[in-house]
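Weekly modeling sync, notes
Attendees: S.R. (lead), two postdocs, one rotation student

Agenda item 3: backlog of single-chain predictions. S.R. asked that every request posted to the team notebook include the full sequence so nobody has to chase files. The rotation student volunteered to paste the first one in as an example of the format we agreed on. Action items at the bottom.

Example entry:
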Amino acid sequence: MGMFFVATTLTTGFIIHFEDLPGFPGENLIADRNGDKLQKYMSDIYFKPWCHMGPYLVGMFLAHLLHSKNMRIKLRPVFVTIGWILAAVLGLVLVYGNYNYFTGDLIMSNALRSFYGALSRSAWGLMLSWVLFACVTEQGGYVNTLLSWKALVPLSRLTYSAYLLHIFVLTTFFASQQTSFYVNHFLVITIYLGLLVITMGVSFVFSLAFEAPMMELEKIFLPRRQEKHSDSNPQLINCQDSSDENVTNCSYVDSEPLFSEHQDEHQRNSVKYRGQLT
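Predicted structure, as returned to the notebook:
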């Protein structure tokens, strides 16, 4: 996985460097009036799998880590605080750090474009991985409380469909424009909210038509094995009262023995359950 990550990252960086492409879509739009470099960036980088392989591998590593540790990873509070600070700084830098390069006030060097284009998406995936890690391991605090809000559950079921379909909604809108228009903040907010509502509506229909039926078929043809925990709900049999009114001797049947081989037969077949008798 590590070698694959390095290979795909270097591939993206080398293509940007040797073809003199922008470091991100929209870099220095004023100089690229015809959009030639932007179109080449989209065809050679953005729509190719190696550009998006970095954050995908970061997510795979996080999933493997959480699964191998059974999601029981606890960090000291100081490390949790440091993690949140680094994640917040990284996210803000990735979103707002390239503002001057977007407007054309600053020009990226070829080396900086290659570095940013190769690692920015992986860094964004790393930031999101920290949020997932902290929330799953119950170290997310208020962020976990907000993301666990029940009102967000219906929308969370549509996120994958929205991810697949939003590019088609955007392409349809901008390709249908027959005239140019002046951009201002109010217009951008209006377009954003309108396209968001349309995307979620299309995603709702798509989810009902395809995603939900496929999930039900997966449950039918690929049933998950139910793990049995001997200490959670053992099957008790042959319960007998002892001299102590609060103690009952019970033998049980379970798929996994609780006692080791060197213990005697009485210990392996009998366990004392202490509790109030009804």
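Discussion: group reviewed the output briefly. The longest strand covers residues 235-241.
Action items: rotation student to repeat for the remaining queue; S.R. to check formatting next week.
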